[in-house]
Structure formats: C-alpha cells, structure tokens
Amino acid sequence: MFELFRLYRISISNLLRARWIWAYLGFFLLVSFGLFRYSPTLSGAMVSYMNVVVLIIPLIATIIGSMYYYNNYDFSMMMLTQPIKRISVFLGQIWALITMLSVSFLIGTIGGAAYYGFDETLWTQLILLMVCGVFLNAIFTSIAYVLAVKSSDKVRGIGLAMFIWLFMAVVYDGLLLAYFYSFGQYPVENHAIAFTLLNPIDLSRVVVMLQMDVSALMGYTGAVFKSFFGNIAGLSISLFALIFWVLILQFFLWISLRKKDF
C-alpha cells in the first residue's frame, strides 16, 4: 500500500508538469465562464454546459487514458524490474490521472461559474453536474486502461476505447430510440430505466436535467424518468450506479493486471 501511494504521488508530480493538463483546466474555465457570462438564461447555460461535460469528459478521458498507458509503458516496465508489485505501478498511475483530470475539471468549472455569483439553484445543480463529471472521468479513464492492458497494439487499444465512447455517446441512444419505437405498445418503462443505468453518459445527463426541471426537453425519456429520478431515492440509486461502474471497472483492471504477461 505504501508503494502504491508513493507511485501515486510521483505520477501526480509528473502530471502537474504536463502542459495538456493545464490546457484541460483552461478549456473548462473558458467554456464555463463564456456560457454563464453570455447565456441569456441560467437554465440555458446549465443545459449547454451539461452537454459539454457529458460528451467532452468521456472523450478526453478515453483518449488521454489510452495514450497515458502506452506512453508510460516503458517506464512501467522499468519499475517492474524493481521489487514493486505491478498493481501498485499501474493503479498509482491511473488514480493519479483520474485525480488530475477531475481536479482540473472542478477548478475550471468553479472558476468560470464564480462570475455568476452565489445562487442556490445554480450551485445545487452545478455540484450535481460536477459529481457526475468526476464519475465520468473515473469511468472512462478506467475503460481506456482496461482495454489498453488487454491490447498490446496501441492503435487497436485506442480504437477500441474510442468505439466504446462513440457507442455510449451516440449509438446507444439511437438503439434505445429504435427499441422504444418498435415496442411502444408494450410497457417498456422499466426497461428504459434499466437501459439508462447501463450507460453512464445517459445516466449523468438524465440525473442532471431532471434536477433542472427541464425534463420536457427530453421527450419520452424525461417523462419516464421524472417519477423515478426526480426524488432523493432515485438520485441515490443513480449515484450508486455510477459508483458501481467505477468499482467494477477497477476490479476488471485489477484482474487484467494480474493475468497480463508483461
């Protein structure tokens, strides 16, 4: 455990010197400031920023997670020649990456939204959005790492990770729409809830929008989920689902690292 946190600290120190992490922070700072400064309504700014968060964070986490693993592969192999467990080496790296991506996102969001001043409604919704953003960082970075560990070929590993992002961000919603259209005459409300819990991007989007009281913009999905996610119990279940995503992916990563023949 001491080794893991020592490598975690070293990885954090290395990431702080990376220019792209500061560019990542600057991106969210500029976007959040621009939206809250120039959007005519608070709800419009929140919806726009939510769309940026649920699409950009998974995309960047997927790309950076894959590239970070492959670019640090030689360093990791060198560390494995020492009396250090492989779990400590790779978990220290991925936890550091998740931490830096999440902290950059949080600082950028808070810094940009601070221009708006203190508004209880704004910050309640924004805190929920930031929590979902942190979970999305952890989930898609973990997905990228799992796929990279399983694939020695860099192009194949990054390609698979990008396919997962594309499927969850775009294709998944199209398949759900086709399913609801085909079986609309049957009671599919429970299926809709289950399918949304299986996609962290959709889950984050639904949870935030329902707390913003703009579920009418979501059509059928918003009507179905209003009664389920629009209360404390539903919110707790949705956050538990995001936690479960993180834990199960970390477990798969642990299993993959133990079986990997480096």
State the helical fraction: over 70%
Low-pLDDT stretches: none
The averaged pLDDT comes out at 84
Q: How would the global form be characterised? A: globular
What's the number of extended β-strand segments?
0
What is the chain-wise order of helices and strands? Answer: HHHHHHHHHHH
Q: From the helix content, strand content and strand pairing, which structural class follows?
A: mainly alpha
State Rg.
Answer: 19 Å
The oligomeric state of the chains shown is: single chain
Fold topology:
Blueprint: H1 2-16, H2 19-38, H3 42-71, H4 73-80, H5 86-113, H6 120-150, H7 154-182, H8 189-197, H9 200-211, H10 220-229, H11 232-259
Tell me what you see in this structure.
It is built from eleven helices and no strands. The mean pLDDT is 84. The protein is mostly helical and 262 residues long. The chain has one domain. It has helices at residues 2-16, 19-38, 42-71, 73-80, 86-113, 120-150, 154-182, 189-197, 200-211, 220-229, 232-259. The chain is globular.
Short description:
The chain has 262 residues and is mainly α.
List keywords for this structure.
11 helices, 262 residues, single chain, mainly alpha
